[in-house]
Amino acid sequence: MDSFQIFTTSTSLVDSVDKKLLVVLRDGRKLIGILRSFDQFANLVLQDTIERIYIGDTYGDIPRGIFIIRGENVVLLGEIDEDKEDELPLREVPVEEVLQVQREEMEAKVKREKTKHRMLSEQGFSVDTAEFGELY
Q1: Do 82 and 36 belong together in one domain?
Q2: Domain of life of the organism in this record (predicted)?
Q3: Which of 44, 53, 96, 97 is most buried, judged by most C-beta within 10 A?
Q4: Pairing mode, if any, of strands 20-25 and 74-79?
């Protein structure tokens, strides 16, 4: 019989220590860093962390250094294959450009949502007033 077991608790992170990981947070941020430590609540400590912002086929990186992440904020966690990372069809641009495009996209989205809410309320529909990204 195989002695292989699948762990669904934070102990399954043992094999990921000292490896480069991508962590997606509840608020949508994507962090890339080296896992240095974790605890029983899946709180993580990442070293040499960058926050990567994707816009279309471009991305920008913001250096964050040591980053402590509360386990309940982790949506997805995965190891990065560094050999395949360089082969991605993405283009790095200065982070200022990515932030500007992201800001413009968010303003356009807010404007569309306000128009939609106004039109729905004029038709007598109830409108959910929750802010973007707060629906978890």
Answers
A1: yes
A2: Eukaryota
A3: 44
A4: antiparallel
pLDDT tens-digit map of 17-43? 999 999 999 999 999 999 999 988 889
Are 74 and 62 in contact, with CB atoms under 8 Å apart? Answer: no
Q: What angle do CA 61, 66, 70 make, to 5 degrees?
A: 100
Q: Which domain holds residue 78?
A: 1-92
80 and 105 both lie in a single domain? no
* DSSP type of residue 14: G
In whole angstroms, what is the distance from residue 82 CA to residue 80 CA? 6
* 136 residues of the chain, pLDDT tens digit each: 455 555 556 667 888 899 999 999 999 999 999 999 998 888 999 999 999 999 888 899 999 999 999 999 999 999 998 888 778 888 889 989 988 998 999 999 999 999 998 888 888 887 766 655 444 4
DSSP at 85 = H
Length of the chain: 136
